[in-house]
Amino acid sequence: MGKQINYWMDYDNFLLLAQKALDLGCRIIREDLDAGKVTESGDIGIVVPYGKHKRINYYFHLPEAGDVKIKIYNGMERLDHGFSATGNAVIEADYSFVLREQAGVCGMRGRREIMRARIYCITGYYGEDGEYIPRPECLTKVYNALARYVKKLAPCTEFTDTRISMREENYGEKVEYKYKEYVTKACLEMVEREGYRL
User: pTM score, two decimals?
Assistant: First the structure.
């Protein structure tokens, strides 16, 4: 459990979010899963565009909330970011990975899709002695400030979609429903002009 906000955000807007995190006293951690390397920096230059595959994780580390621990698995560095002391000192963050049109199964064209991203922090964790250690208030304040900023970068947008009803009174019929999502202008333009799906 924890706090999170889901959104669709492009790389350029994520750089703005990363800079906001730096301005709030965080450092940026990049966990490169392919290279097996964890790097921490006080500069947004550490944030790079995703390649063909999303194999990089980002975290905003608030040193005031505690230190981070790096573990080695099969010779590869990994951030110990789960329900641990490190988890209590970081905010997981990412931006949307864009699946471009590719050749699909049996020569069919692949989907053009923008994947959902989020910022997330844990509620707390249980120490080795079984005592519950809540998330530090300083991290909660930074998270809340970042969540407010996400809502400015990716305003709440209403969508209408059609689904097949599972309700007894109109089972199997097409029905319209409305829902809201946080989407940056750049991602919304990809949906409206280029036919991408969220």
Answer: 0.86
